[in-house]
Specification:
This protein is α/β, with parallel strands linked by helices. It has six helices and nine strands; from the N terminus they run αββαβββααβαβαββ.
Length: 205
């Protein structure tokens, strides 16, 4: 098996760029968390976003690869510190194909820029049995196309699937009625066991 192709730099530039573009086409499911860390140079705690996957390797190979990578990836989940124009941390996301997995707590820290780019989200929801579901935040994610809600029991030993469906169907219907101009995304419901409850089907009287 070939581990390295040393003549790659000698290929025509058009072919090299095409090969780089092919390397960006796989979909990723990226779990994003909002975490606190302690900076040794600063006794105060700081916060930042972290992902369960590394940054795309192509962004670190060379200038050509990085340039092509930035055509597909957007720097999101940026953290800025005062008096510093550049973000101290960020994640490379391909909004058109990547799926972001995020918790109810973390989604509340999304910036305006993040909300403008995200298309597909998996949202972990604690069902306790009255979940504080952040539907107002979901509505502000302007270009959201699909969201999968994964329900985790907090105080209940087991979740009742039909009850969860009816509960969230009512929530979304009331929210759409209150915000008629909102383009509701496709909503999939799943239990933490992996059992699918299907998609919300809006039914109007």
């Amino acid at each position: 098996m070939l581990d390295a192709f040393h003549r790659f730099p000698s290929l025509p530039v058009e072919l090299r760029l095409q090969i780089w573009s092919w390397s960006f086409l796989h979909k990723r499911v990226i779990k994003v968390s909002w975490r606190r860390f302690e900076n040794r140079d600063n006794p105060h705690h700081s916060w930042h976003f972290s992902a369960d996957q590394p940054s795309p390797a192509q962004a670190q190979v060379n200038r050509e690869a990085r340039y092509e990578a930035l055509r597909y990836y957007t720097t999101l989940f940026c953290i800025y510190y005062p008096k510093k124009p550049e973000p101290s941390s960020y994640l490379y996301i391909a909004p058109e194909i990547d799926v972001i997995r995020i918790s109810e707590a973390t989604i509340r820290f999304l910036s305006v820029t993040d909300k403008k780019h995200l298309r597909r989200i998996i949202l972990d929801v604690e069902y306790d049995p009255v979940p504080q579901f952040p539907i107002d935040v979901v509505r502000t994610i302007e270009r959201l196309e699909e969201i999968e809600l994964v329900f985790w029991p907090k105080y209940l030993s087991k979740l009742n699937g039909p009850r969860v469906v009816n509960d969230f169907l009512g929530r979304f219907i009331r929210h759409v009625e209150a915000h008629p101009r909102w383009q509701m995304p496709l909503v999939k419901l799943t239990l933490n066991s992996g059992k699918s409850l299907g998609y919300l089907e809006m039914q109007w009287p």
